[in-house]
Structure prediction request, 360 residues.
Amino acid sequence: MRKRKLLLKHHLCPGDITCTTSLVRDLHFQYGDRVEIGFDTNHKAVYAHNPYVKQMLPGESDVETIVLGYLKGLTESKAGTYRKHFLTYFYKDFFKKTGLEVQCTTAKPDLHLSEYHKRVSPISGRYWLVFAGGKSDFTVKLWETERYQHTVDRLRDFGLRFAQSGATKPSLKPKNIQPRLENVTDLLGWGGVEEFLWQIYHAEGVICPITAAMHIAAGFDKPCVVVAGGREEWWWEAYTNDGQFPELATPVSVPHKYLHTIGKLTCCAEHGCHKNKVVKINDDSRLCLQPATSRQGRQPLPVCMDMITVDHVVNAVLEYYADGVLPPIGMPTREIHSWYSESGRFTPENVKTSQTYGAA
Prediction:
């Protein structure tokens, strides 16, 4: 059989590119010497240390260029005809374009760092990374800055340390929105994608909206609390073991806490709304259907994000310690709140028993 030289191509955001690494891993192990893999991307750091890809250029002899995509999967997910994680849609798209069937073997991206970055941490000691910002084209994803600050302050009382990260390049379009928090180590705008991976690799866990950080955290088996709301389906985004990955795939070893409102509001009763903005900017047409109306003078939020409280996030973070996923953090610096039960587990009535949480 002739060896196929496949140059895979994807030029969207770092989170999307991170999810393509799962396909590359499984393509390499399932087809071996029958394929040679290259990857063309705008965020080269994601593949900089990947052992399964080779340098390959378009136009080389016998090179097949395959542009990987998943946008049709968004439509299928919203229609309920594809209730799987979007990472798996790259496999479906790849099969359609190449005729090569690849099985997803592990429910996470496949990320690699240099030996130096694995050995040396950018911050001494234990820390959580918090991402309190986002991009101007998707303001629906933003949670209230004040709540991120309260979350950090509450968890600091239990002995946790925080660093804040995120891109701040002013030349980017859409623009980055990165409100600075207090009482955190400031890593905003520090480095590029390689440093971004490095920060998450050594973090104890991540708090973020739906963004690249959650996919990178999954790749490194890190705890992650995702403030998701009702924009995107949990089965499309969440790294949990609730049926959104193939049955034969190795399960998620550290399930994330995906705080969502799917099924709680009319605008996201059966699936995510996939809207972009809370309030109109320029000629936007994909506006939130249920903005929180009682927030005059405060940061605009959709109702789905307004429903997620500081308690939800704090509880979710501390559960990783109560369940033994993370080593103990020591004694709290003040009296434990009433929302922490005597059994050591968090039992708010509005949290589902599965790792995919729904806010009440």
Notes: Residues 331-360 have pLDDT under 50 and may be disordered. Residues 78 and 271 are 6 Å apart (CA to CA). The longest helix spans residues 14-31. The two ends are 56 Å apart (CA to CA).
